[in-house]
Design brief:
The protein has five helices and 15 strands. Strand 6 and strand 7 form a beta hairpin. It folds into two domains: about 140 residues, Jelly Rolls (Sandwich); about 170 residues, no CATH class. It is an alpha+beta fold. Strands 1, 2, 3, 5, 8 and 10 form a six-stranded antiparallel sheet that branches. A five-stranded mixed sheet has the order 11-13-12-14-15, with helices on one face. A four-stranded antiparallel sheet has the order 4-9-6-7, with no helix packed on it. It holds the Pfam family Sec-ASP3. It comes from Ligilactobacillus agilis.
Length: about 325
Amino acid sequence: MRNIIYWNNFKRTYAFGSQIEVQGEESVFFENHLLTSGQVLATWIMQANYQGERNEPQLPLLYPGHSYRLHLIAQTWPAASIYMRIIFKDINGHVLKRQVIRGFDGNFTYPKTAHEYQVELLAAGCYKLHFKRLEIEEYGLTVGDDDYLFSGVMNNNEETAVLNVIFTEPLARLQAELTYEGLLDRVTNCLVINSTLSNAKLYLDDKVKAKLQELVKTYQHVNLISYGPVTNLTTWYYGRYFGKKMTVYGTNDFYSLKRYQKLFREYLHEMFAVDTDLLVARLEKLPKKAARTDLDLVKPLFNLETKLLAFPMFRKGEA
């Protein structure tokens, strides 16, 4: 599981002489020409004093003795002028170990006696930084700079010219991925699209559209499959865009119109325009019990993928 960490708490940010511009959850510009080498620019912590700070922990829980990879996605001026430091502490808050990671990528093992940890960004001649995100995942899994990840075609069946494309539903601070064991074994000619972005930017991106255009040229027909409020909007959009070349298999899980409009504004310059009137018409067709309110935003989305089992291509023996 890949954990996504953003720079959205500035209480542990070096403020003296700093200019900070937030352009969205995944884009923070930091500039300070007075920085000295070794200066800590920002700190993320695993434990948080909620009463004192009104902030939740920023880092994921790690398993003692397990190995992890820490990856920074950012740009610095001059190039390669920043490094990371991980500080491990015991149950009493005493420092057990400090580990420095030179560059943007490195591995570490979480000490068996550690109770908490923190991650720091430090200057090494840096005067400007464009920060996107940190990623932490168990060592051995793929880490990359790609915002969208496309699998190969799995369970290939040459007897059918139909491709099943699954858009994975993003969870808060986690890479979108399918977790239901054995799920993909049930469907033939399957391609999975993941994203490392918050809300996947609804998958309304040129990279995704170009991939789908490539697929409709290769296959006689493409099924678009979704199971949550982000991906259901995605498949609804592309289903209308590609028309008869694609069939949409989705659920009735949608956000409120107000929530979608907020996302549209946030990603206005980075994704396609969505016809709000058509979206309203789609939302009005939902059963009343499926109507979404903003309270749904705090509900966990775990195991939504089990809803895929209701679709015919996931029931073995059916096309």
